[in-house]
Structures are given as structure tokens and as C-alpha cells.
Amino acid sequence: MKCQKVRKKSSAFVDGELSEKKKVEITHHLETCPSCGEEVKVLSSLSVLLMEEKESIKASPYFWNKLEQRIIHAETNKNAFDALLEWLNRTLIPASATAVVVIGLFIGICLGGIIYTRIAQILNPDSSSLVQQEMNQSLHLSTLNDFPQESIGEIYIGLLAENNLPK
Fold it and tell me: How far is Cα 31 from Cα 33, in angstroms, rounded to an integer?
């Protein structure tokens, strides 16, 4: 085993976290490499010192209460953010997607009608009234003729006339 691998695993070796096979490999390397052996000795003595001092270190009486409050506060903030993301996923995203589809369909239908009329007029200028009649029938605009003068249907027909669209 090379020194670089031994140094990466030296802390786990000192803590006893390695498999038997790895322990044997590192032990064999430490017998032949004084540099790595010294590093493992230093880590081992440091580990022993920390274990001895662990018993003498006492936390403040309010430490656990403060820690618990911080955890609860972090969970509360996390839950509010999660709730916002869930609301966005459940309502705003589907509503936006639906609006985009509806607007796209509307624009597509309008552009399709305009393009169809223009192409038909270019191909056969004499049949433009026939094209307009066909458009009226396909869009069922003749059903709007029965509405009174200031109704939505009449306003719609007026808008079509202003934009030179087929009625």
C-alpha cells in the first residue's frame, strides 16, 4: 500500500473503522514506513487526549434548550418554504401551462384563418367571397347575426371588420 492511501485511511485506522484486510495492509505498511508510522502515532495520541477531555467538558445548562429551539425554528422555516413550493407545484404551474396552451390555440386559430384567407385570395382572387362564406360557416359566425346591435356578438363582428378579417 502506498503512503498516500495510508494517510487517507489513517484516521479510520486509529478509530478502528476499517475491515480486517485493510488493517493488516496498513499495519504492514506502518512497519516499513517510519513517516506514516509517526503520523499514526500522533493521531492515536490525539485521539486518546480527546477521549480523556471528553469526560471533563460539560455543556451549559441552557445548551440543549437553545439547540432544540434552533432545530424547531429551522424546521418551521423549512416547512413554510416547502408549503410554498408545494402550492406552486399544485396551482401556479398547472394554471400557467393551461393558460399557455389556451393562448397558443387561440393565436394558432387566428393565424390559421388569416393565412388560409390570404392564400385563397392569392390563388383565386375571384373566389374571395366564397372563401369568406366558407370561413363564416366553419367558424359559425352566422349564429351571431341574431344578437341585438350593442351585444358582444355585434361588437365581435365589428372588430373583425376593422381588422379586415372575414366575417
Answer: 6
The full set of domain ranges for the chain reads: 3-56
Rounded distance between C-alpha atoms, residue 11 and residue 17, angstroms? 9
Note whether 33 and 3 are within 8 A (CB): yes
Helix (H), strand (E) at residue 112? helix 93-123
**Phi/psi of residue 18, nearest 5 degrees:** -100, 160
- Determine the Cα–Cα distance for residues 128 and 133; give it in Å rounded to an integer: 9
CA-wise closest residue to 7 among 28, 32, 26, 31: 26
pLDDT in tens, 2-60: 888 888 888 888 888 889 999 999 999 988 988 988 988 998 888 888 877 777 777 77
For residue 95, how many C-alpha atoms fall within 13 Å in the half-sphere facing its CB?
A: 6
- Rg, Å, the chain Cα set: 40
Distance of alpha carbon 71 from alpha carbon 82, whole angstroms: 16
Closest CA to 136 of 167, 103, 113, 101: 167
pLDDT tens, 64-86?
Answer: 888 888 888 877 766 677 778 88
